[in-house]
Amino acid sequence: SAYKSAGALAQMKNDPAKAVKVVAAALKSEDVKYRNSVIDNATSILGAGNLVPLFTKNFAKLSAPVKVDLLNWFGNNKISSVSDIVLGSFSEGGDVASAAIAAAGKIGGDKAAKALVGQLGGENSAAAIAALKSFKGNYQDELLAALDGAKDNKTLGNILGLVMARRITAAAPKVYSLIDSKDAEASSLAKLALADIVGVQDIDKVGALLDNASAADQKAAQNALIAAVHTLAPAEQYAKVSALMKKSKNVSAYYP
Question: Which one of 70, 98, 189, 205 has the fewest beta carbons within 10 angstroms of its own beta carbon?
C-alpha cells in the first residue's frame, strides 16, 4: 500500500495532466489506505475543485466503502456544490449514511440543517446529533418545528438535548406545554430541559412549578429557578426568591 501510494504520488507530480486518471483508477481499488492516500495527494496537487467532477460522476454506482471515502472528502473540503448527493445518501443507511450525515454537518447550509434535524428520530439519530452539535449555522427554526412534530419520546429527548445545548429560549412555550403533558416521560424530559432555556422572565412560572413539584421533580425545578435568577445581582436574586417563598405553599422545596 505504501509502495503503491508513493508510485501514484510520483506519477501525479510528474504529469499532473494525468492525475485525474490515477485517481479514477484508485477509486476501483479495494485498498482503503491506498485510495485515500491517492485522493489526499491529488487534492494537494490539483486542488479540490478539479476532483469534484470525477467524484460526482456515477457516484450512485460506486461501492459503499468508496462512497464513504468520497463523502468524508466532501465534508472535509466543505464542497457545497454536492449537497444533493450528500443529503440523498442519508437513505442508504449504515456507514454511507453516517458519513453523509457527518459531511452535511461540515458543509452546512439551510437544506443540510433541515435534513439533519429530520434524522433525530431514526436509526441515524446519534450521527445526526453529533453533526448538529458542531454545526456552524443557525437551525433554531428547524428544531422548533421538530419539537412540535416529535412523534415519540426518543425523538423528543434528542430534540430537547439540542435545544438545551444551544440554549434556545424561544422553545420555552413549547417546553412549558410539555410539562403539562399527560405523558409522564415527556413531562419529565421537559422539566429537565427547563434549566437551560429559562431567563428572568420565567421566574414566577418556575416558582409555581417548584411550589407544586413532586419529590422526583423537585431538583429539576430548583435548577430551573437557579438558572432563571442567575443573571441578577445577588440582592435582586434574594429579593425575587424571598418573594416567591413568602407566597409558597411548599417553602421546604426552596432548600437543597
Answer: 205
Running DSSP on this structure, what letter comes out for residue 235?
H
How many Cα atoms sit within 13 Å of 125 on the Cβ side?
A: 14
pTM, two decimals, is: 0.86
Q: Which residue has the cell 403533558?
A: 181
CA dist 223 and 232 (Å) reads 15
Length of the chain equals 256
DSSP state of 89: G
Instruction: Give CA–CA dist 22/81, Å, rounded.
Output: 23
Nearest by Cα to 43 from 4, 73, 68, 71: 73
pLDDT digits (tens, 9 = 90+) for 85-128: 999 999 998 999 999 999 999 999 999 999 999 999 989 999 99
Site of grid cell 486542488: 47
Fill in the DSSP letter of residue 214: -
Instruction: Give the three-state DSSP class for 212.
Output: coil
